[in-house]
Design goal:
CATH topology: TIM Barrel
Number of domains: 1
Structural class: alpha/beta
Strand content: 5-15%
Strand order of the largest sheet: 1-2-3-4-6-8-9-10
CATH architecture: Alpha-Beta Barrel
Oligomer: single chain
Order of helices and strands: EHEHEHEEHEEHEHHEHEHHH
Number of helices: 11
Radius of gyration: 20 Å
CATH superfamily: Divalent-metal-dependent TIM barrel enzymes
Helix content: 40-55%
Shape: globular
């Protein structure tokens, strides 16, 4: 049997519709009384059976929009009964705070945002603890998405926001350490949304932040780092392959979000300058390369599918897209293992880059063959 591979499915993928400029009710079955326990049961019954047996599945969710003290017991029971795990939890600060969150210059907002973070830690170590993976190295990620700590006015106040951010995250990390220190805490960098400008916009920003936190506040870098989010790098034209090198070189890839803005496979439109589309994982050369990099680094943690069903999908099509995303990444990993890396490095050393292109293109073809075999 192939080596165990950990994939996590996101609660927010299963929504009734985006709304706004597109229908908000394309999938009415996923609205109303369809809560997080129901979503977990759906994954257990409709998705798990179509995934290869070497894949273990987890679930990702926001506190307090998707899981809170009221439904946490039902969520934990649903995870256990479906043999799924809590893979990632994140404080949904962007749902509450529009003026900087934990970086806010408004003391009242900052305090409330900090409390949301500690309550998220409490829930992870409390009611949800029984749904953690039994291997503590695969404990959930605690992802800090920067959607709330942004700004839209150029003033010297930005520096104070950054100072607030460091102080607040240091306090959160020390709080989590007292609870056990097992969560893997990572930033999810993003250049924009929900503000025109953001603190921690890039992978390099996130890496530097943790070094500064260790120097200034004594917060150890163990289990700290970056949620490797493909699409956010793609949105501003950065190289998510090299981002992966930086994350792995520093031992700071604590979680992954496999998705795509679409521009790099020649089929799906999107890319730099576009809004956050969040397609599922794609079969392409860049993803085969990243799969090879994480294999070399022996990355064995969760690979999340932070994706949206398309605005025109019904529920069956939405479920199918999630399955396709998982299989696409597994296919890229299979192709990466088959690739003759020694031969590839030889042609690169000889400046025979056209041959290197041929080898990567063949790997993409191989990945598609693997996908077709698994999907059928």
């Amino acid at each position: 049997m192939a080596k165990k591979s950990l994939h996590s499915i996101c609660r927010w993928t299963f929504n009734p519709g985006k709304g706004g400029f597109v229908p908000g009710d394309m999938r009415p079955e996923w609205g109303g009384s369809f809560g997080t326990p129901e979503m977990i049961n759906l994954v257990g019954k409709r998705i798990k059976s179509r995934i290869p047996s070497n894949v273990e599945l987890g679930i990702e969710m926001h506190y307090d929009a998707e899981v809170d003290d009221k439904n946490a017991a039902a969520v934990a029971d649903a995870l256990i009964s479906n043999k799924l795990y809590l893979a990632m939890i994140t404080p949904g600060a962007h749902s509450h705070f529009a003026y900087g969150g934990i970086a806010s210059l408004d003391p009242a907002e900052r305090k409330a945002a900090e409390e949301l973070g500690t309550k998220t830690v409490d829930l992870a170590y409390g009611t949800l603890k029984k749904a953690w993976h039994p291997d503590i190295d695969k404990a959930p990620a605690f992802v800090i998405w920067n959607g709330s700590f942004g700004y839209d006015i150029a003033t010297v106040g930005v520096k104070k926001m950054y100072e607030n951010l460091k102080e607040s995250v240091a306090g959160l990390c020390k709080y989590e350490e007292k609870k056990g220190g097992h969560l893997h805490i990572g930033f999810e960098p993003k250049p924009n949304e929900g503000h025109p400008a953001m603190l921690i916009p890039t992978v390099a920003s996130a890496l530097l932040f943790w070094f500064r936190l260790e120097e200034e506040f004594g917060v150890a870098r163990k289990n700290k780092g970056v949620n490797k989010e493909f699409g956010h790098s793609e949105m501003i034209g950065l190289d998510h392959v090299y981002d992966s090198v930086e994350e792995l070189d520093n031992g700071m890839m604590v979680h992954m979000h496999l998705n795509s803005q679409g521009y790099n496979d020649g089929i799906i439109l999107g890319g730099p300058g576009k809004y956050d589309i969040d397609h599922g994982a794609r079969i392409n050369g860049m993803n085969v390369a990243i799969a090879g990099l994480i294999q070399q680094a022996k990355y064995a943690r969760w690979k999340g599918h932070d994706m949206q069903t398309r605005a025109y999908d019904n529920t069956e099509q939405g479920i199918d897209r999630v399955i396709r995303s998982v299989l696409s990444w597994e296919a890229c990993e299979m192709a990466a293992k088959e690739l003759d890396t020694k031969a590839l490095m030889k042609v690169l050393a000889n400046r025979e880059t056209a041959k290197a292109e041929d080898m990567m293109r063949a790997a993409v073809v191989s990945a598609q063959v693997h996908f077709d075999e698994m999907y059928k």
